[in-house]
Structures are given as structure tokens and as C-alpha cells.
Amino acid sequence: MDDTRTWQVIDAERAATADLLAGLTDVEWTYPSLCEGWTVREVAAHLTLGPRMRIGATLGAFVRARGSFDRMVDQTARAEARRPTGEIVAELRGTVGRHRLAPGQSLKNALMDAMVHAQDIALPLGVERHMPIDAAVVAADDLWRIGFPFHARRRLAGHRLVATDTDWSVGEGAEISGPIEALVMLLAGRTATIPRLTGITA
């Protein structure tokens, strides 16, 4: 996938997620997401932040989080989540076409972030969303390559992951197979798509 195609997928994911959020009830905004400790509201708020973060603001947030990346991500999302739902939706729509990355973020990571968090919101709401297969392959490769914060290779050591809908596989050992999008969510530490996989149980 070239950069143009990657940004097209990111924009499509952001636009579709904004459309989904716009139709939610007040109660649905409070549903637990697939991100531990976050509701739909916090995930939605987090998705608005990347394209707007600047290096100065990021460093300030990092200091306030006492040097913890995870704490910084959580604190910034919760602060943003205090805004009215309409503002959060509008902010997310405003990220469509805004092709800038958060400080230290790669384009592949931005792609993975957009697709995984879209599922984090949709799946608990019972909404069926599908990742484009070519983009899911890029995200899967990136998740396998990087360590922090998902540590997929360590968590899934002793297993070979095999996609059943495209030519993709990694690892060695007992086979876990299924659709590439379900494998992406597994690599990202989510368990919700395990029922779509063979060779692993929750």
C-alpha cells in the first residue's frame, strides 16, 4: 500500500466512525469499549487527538503523566471526552483529510489505530464493520513488528498466525487461523474476535 491509499483508508475509517457515533443514543456512548477502562466516549475522544497534537502539547501531557505513555494517552482521552458528544463527532469529522501524524507516530501506526479503534467502538455496539484486506495486512505486519505497547510477538510466542482470506502468516508453532481482520484485533490484544479464529480459545 502506498501513502495515498493508506490515507484513503484512514479517512474512510474516520468518516465511517463519525457517522456511527452521530447516530448513537446517550446510553450507547457509555457502553464499555474493547479498550480496557474506556467507554465508547473515551475511544471516540482519543480518535480526535492524533491529527491535532503538536510536539509542545504532547511533551506537556507527557510531563503531567509523570513520564508514562499509557497514562498520557488515558489522561488526554478522558479530558477530551468531557466535551459534548456533538463536538466530539464534529472534531472527528474534521480529521478527515487532515493528513498529519501525532508526534512520533508512523503512518502505518495511524492506519492501525484508526481501524482497531473503529472496531473497539463498533463490536460492543453490535455493529458489523470490516477492515479492507490490504490495509489489514499492513496493520498486522506493523503490529507484529513493533513491541510496545502491544508486545504481540511475546504474547503469541509459540504460535503461527495464518490468514484464511489473504496470503499472510507470521510466527512459528501451533497454528491460529482466521480472517486477517480478526487476527489484527488479536495482535492488538483484543479478545472479541477470538470466536472467529481457530486454534485459540478465550
Strands of the largest sheet, in order across it? 2-1-3
CATH fold-level assignment of the largest domain? Four Helix Bundle (Hemerythrin (Met), subunit A)
Q: Hey, roughly how much beta strand do the residues contain?
A: 5-15%
Terminus-to-terminus distance: 32 Å
* CATH level-four homologous superfamily name of the largest domain: dinb family like domain
The description of the largest β-sheet is: 3 strands, mixed
Helix/strand class: mainly alpha
Portion in helices: 40-55%
Task: Provide key terms for this protein.
about 200 residues; mainly alpha; 3-stranded mixed β-sheet; about 55% helix; globular
Can you characterise this structure?
- The chain is mostly helical and 202 residues long.
- The chain folds into 2 domains: 3-125, dinb family like domain (Four Helix Bundle (Hemerythrin (Met), subunit A), Up-down Bundle); 133-196, no CATH class.
- It contains 10 helices and 3 strands, in the order H-H-H-H-H-H-H-H-H-E-E-E-H.
- The protein has helices at 3-22, 26-29, 40-49, 55-64, 69-80, 85-94, 107-122, 133-145, 152-155, 180-187; strands spanning 159-163, 169-171, 174-178.
- The protein has a 3-stranded mixed β-sheet with strand order 2-1-3.
- Helix 3 (40-49) packs antiparallel against helix 7 (107-122).
